[in-house]
Amino acid sequence: MEEWHGQIAAALKERNNPVRIGAVLGEVVSTSPWKVAIKDGKFMIDASNGYVCFQLIHHITTYSYRHSGKMTHKGCPAGPKTDYDAQGEGKIVLNELWKTGDKVLVIPDENEQHFFIVDIVKEGI
């Protein structure tokens, strides 16, 4: 007669374990309101069951510059006061980096009930 632990191991091996989704490629269906399709459109992810990384919907970078030199025209001084000094700073704001049709990396949470839209994926680069 087989021991109990062998019977349990056999029963666990025979059961139907659900197939995990794991990280998948999704396709952006809409950006406002946002919606992403996965598994060839069988499942839709939106604000009710997903989260979008901030970098996809809003990207801000700042810059500053300082430059000085002499103004010239065709290699000659441009006039008696050709020295200049310039400086400044600013902000560049890019809204909605993703667009309809983009492929995105989608990662489910542990229970596969909520999804994280991580980044745009480019193929063949």
Could you explain how this protein is built, in words?
- It is a single chain.
- By secondary structure, the protein is mainly β.
- Helix content is 12%, strand content 49%.
- It is built from two helices and ten strands, in the order αββββαββββββ.
- The longest helix is centred in the first third of the chain and has 11 residues, at 4-14.
Residue stretches low in confidence (pLDDT < 50, at least 5 long) are: none
Report strand %: over 45%
The strand count comes to 10
Number of helices: 2
Would you tell me the overall average pLDDT?
86
Task: Output the keywords.
6-stranded mixed β-sheet; 12% helix; two-stranded antiparallel ribbon; 125 residues; mainly beta; 2 helices; elongated
Quick summary:
By secondary structure, the chain is mainly β.
Secondary structure: elements and pairs:
Elements: H1 4-14, E1 24-31, E2 34-38, E3 43-45, E4 50-52, H2 54-57, E5 58-70, E6 72-73, E7 76-77, E8 83-95, E9 103-108, E10 115-120
Parallel strand pairs: 4-10
Antiparallel strand pairs: 1-2, 1-9, 2-3, 5-8, 6-7, 9-10
